[in-house]
Amino acid sequence: MPRRIWLKEIILENFMSYEYARIPLKPGVNLVSGPNGAGKSSILLAISVALGQIYTERSRRLRDLIRRGEEIARITLVFDNRAEGGKRPISYSDADTFMLSRYLRSDGNYWWEAEYRRVSYEEVSRLFKDFGLDPNNMLIIMHQNTMEQFALTTPQEKLKMLEDAVGFSAYRERVIEAKNRLERIISEDESISTLLGKAEESLGYWKEMHERYLQRRELLARQEWLKREAIWARILKQEAVLKALQGRLRMKEHELHANQKEMERTEESIKMWREKLDTWKVSTREVFYELLHLEKEATSIEDLITHLQEMETIFGEMGRYEEVERQSMKEKEAERRLEQLKEMIIRAQSELGALERTIEMNLETYISYCVKGEVLKFKREMIADEIREIKGEMEKVKHKLEELAPLRRKAGARIETERKQSEIEHEIELINAKIEALGKIPEETEEIYSSYGRLYEELKAKAKIVEANKRESLKELDTRTRVWRDAISGLLDSVNRSFMEIMSCIGATGLARLVNPDDIENAGLELYVGFRGSPPVLFDYYTQSGGEKTASIMAFLLSIQQLIQSPLRAVDEFDIHMDPRNREEIYRRMVALMKDTECLLITPSQLTVSDPDVHVIVVQKVQGHSEIREVK
Questions:
Q1: Regarding beta strands 524-531 and 508-515, do their DSSP bridges make them parallel or antiparallel, or are they unpaired?
Q2: Can you give the pTM of this predicted structure?
C-alpha cells in the first residue's frame, strides 16, 4: 500500500484570477462551490500544475496562468507531515508540514521548490508516485471538461488508467516483461540456427586466413613499435635541445648575477669617489675664495702703506712731526698686517695646490670606475639579450613539445633511441609494403578461427538450452497472463458490484467489461450503461446525453474509490448536466465514500450540505480577483 499524506492548504499568489488566497482543506470531502467564472476550477488547475501535470487544458503555456500584469506566480501546497506510527509520510523532512511550491515566470522560466530548496520535475514526480498520486490520471484528478475526454478515450487507455489508479500496473508490467523475454529468446533461437549453418561453411576459409593474420599481426606489432620509436625520436631531439638551452640559460643567468653584483660594487665606488671629488672641489673653491679675499686685502694694505708714506712726506715737509709720527705708527701697523696676510696667502696657496693635486691624482680613479660601470652596463645588456634569445628559443622548443604532447600520450612508455627519424621512417615504409602484400584481413580473424572449432558444438548445446528456455518462458508468460487476467477479472467483479448498485440508485444499469483479455497489449475496458429501463449499451461520447455521460462516469468513479491508491482525488463539475435527483444521490454517495480519504469536489450548483464533516469552500470574484470563504 502506498503511504498516506494529506493536503492541508493551497496558497495561490498571482495565479489566474487569484491575487493572494489561502485555501484550507480537510480529510474527507471538500466541496468548492460558487458561480461560474469565480475561480473554482483554477484551484484544481493549481494543484495539478504544482504536482507536475504534463498538460493543462486551459493553456499549453504555463505563463498564461500568471495573473495579468504580474511577472511571477506561485502555487504552494502544504502537506500534513506529522508522524504516524513513528514515521513521517515524507521521511527526509523533519517538519510537521511539508511545503511544495511551483513558480511560474512570465519569461517562461518555471521551477519547483520543496521546503525552499530547488527540486527537479523528476524529484517531484518520484515523490508523489510513492503516494500513488498521479496528476495525469483522469481517474484521480478529473478537470473541467475531462469527463468528455474520458468518454473519448479508447478502451485500452481506460484499462491502463484503472490499473495505474488501483495499483495493478505491476501485473501488466510482469506480463510485458515475460513477453519481451520470450521475444528475445525466440530471436536468439533464430540467430543460433542461422549461425550453425554459417559456422560449418566458414571454418575452412578462416584457417587459411588465420595464417596470414598471424604474419600480419607480427608485422603490425613491429610497425606500432616503429611508430612509437619515431615519435620518441622527435621528442628526445627536442628534449635534448631544451636541456642544452637550459644549461646555457643557467650559465648566462649566473653571468648576469655576477655582473649585477660587480655593478653594485662599482656604483658604490663611483658614488664614494664622486662624493670625495665633490668635497675636494668645495674645499678648493672655499680656499680659492679665501685666497682672493686675502690678496684683495693685501693689495688694499699695500695701497694704504703707500698713501701713509706719501702723507708722512707731506707732513715732514710741513714740519708737522706729530702727524708724521702718527702716520709712521699706522704704517708700521699696516706693514705688520701685510706680513700676516702674506703668510696667510702663502698657506692658502699651498693648501689650494695640495687640493688641486689631490683632485688631479684621484680624478683618474673616478673616471676608471665610471668607464668600468659603463662597460658592465654594456655587458649586462648583452647578457640580457642573450638570455631573451635563449628563452625565446626555449619557448619555441616547448611549443614544439606541446604540439607533440598528443603523440607522446599515444606513443605510450618512453623509448630511448639513438636512431634518426629518417632511418625509422624508412623501416616503416618497408613494413607497410609487406602488410599491403598480405591483402585485407579482418581484425577478428584469430578470435573467429579459434572459436569456430568449438562454436558448432557450443551452438548445438545452446540451441537445446534456448529451446528449454522458450518452453519455460511460454509457461511463465501464460502463468503471468492468467494471473493478470484473474486479477483484472476480480477487480472488475468488485467494481461491477458497486457500479451496478450505484447506477441502480439513479434508475439506471451499468457494467464494466474486459475486452481482448487474451491480448494484454490490446486488452481494454468498456462500460455499458442503460437509462430509463433501456438495456445497457456501450458507453461512448456520442450515444448518451450529457447528463447520462456525467452520471455514468461519476458512478464508475464512485465504484472504484475504495480501490484507488491515491490519498487525494478531485473532480471538477462532477454534476454537470445532471438532473437534481441524480446530483444529490451522487453527492451523497461521494460524501459517504470519502470519509477516510481526501476529496475535492467542484460544482457551480447549490447542494444540500447536511453532513457536518463536509468542508465547504465558497469562491467569489470581487473587483476582478477571486476570494475564498470557508463555511463553518
A1: antiparallel
A2: 0.58
Residue 275: count of CB within 10 angstroms of its CB: 10
CB 138 within 8 A of CB 146: yes
Backbone angles phi, psi at 607, to 5 degrees: -120, 150
| CA distances in angstroms from 26 to 146, 478, 522, listed in the order given | 25, 46, 40
Task: Label residue 116 left, alpha or beta by phi (over 0 means left) and psi (-120 to 50 means alpha).
Answer: left
Give tens-digit pLDDT for 603-629: 887 777 677 788 999 999 888 888 989
What is the maximum alpha-carbon separation in the chain?
188
- Strand pairing of 18-24 and 6-15? antiparallel
176 residue type, one letter? I
* Unique residue bearing C-alpha cell 603523440: 407
Asked whether 575 and 550 are in contact (CB, 8 A), the reply is yes
Please list, in sequence order, all residues whose beta carbon lies within 8 angstroms of the beta carbon of residue 340, skipping any fewer than 6 positions away. none
In Å, what is the CA distance from 25 to each residue of 150, 552, 564, 602?
Answer: 27, 27, 20, 13
Q: State the Cα–Cα distance between residues 227 and 427, nearest whole angstrom.
A: 10
CB contact set of 89 (below 8 Å; sequence gap of 6+): 3, 4, 5, 79, 80, 81, 98, 131
Distance CA 527, CA 559 (A): 12
Q: Tell me how far apart the alpha carbons of residues 494 and 563 are, in angstroms, rounded to a whole number.
A: 9
Asked whether the CA dihedral 619, 622, 626, 632 is positive or negative, the reply is negative
Which residue do the cell numbers 578461427 mark?
A: 449
Residues in the chain: 632
CB within 8 A of 167, min separation 6: which ones?
A: 1, 2, 132, 565
Angstrom distances, CA of residue 149 to CA of 89, 146, 523, 553, 568: 33, 5, 20, 11, 21
Q: Do residues 164 and 134 make contact, with C-beta atoms less than 8 angstroms apart?
A: yes
Which residues are CB-contacts of 106 (< 8 A; sequence separation ≥ 6)?
Answer: 63, 66, 70, 71, 72
- Cα–Cα distance, 607 to 584 (Å, whole number): 7
Q: Which residues of the chain have pLDDT under 50?
A: 1, 57-59
Q: How far is CA 349 from CA 147, 286, 335, 361, in A?
A: 132, 12, 21, 18
Q: What angle do CA 513, 151, 487 make, to 5 degrees?
A: 30
pLDDT at 419: 85
β-pairing, 110-114 vs 117-119, is antiparallel
pLDDT, tens only, 201-218: 777 777 788 888 888 888
- Three cell numbers at 288? 680659492
CA distance 454 to 43: 70
Q: What is the pLDDT of residues 467-477, one digit of tens each?
A: 888 888 888 88
End-to-end CA distance of the chain: 34
Q: From 210, 213, 190, 193, select the one nearest 451 (Cα to Cα).
A: 210
**Count of other CB atoms within 10 angstroms of residue 418:** 7
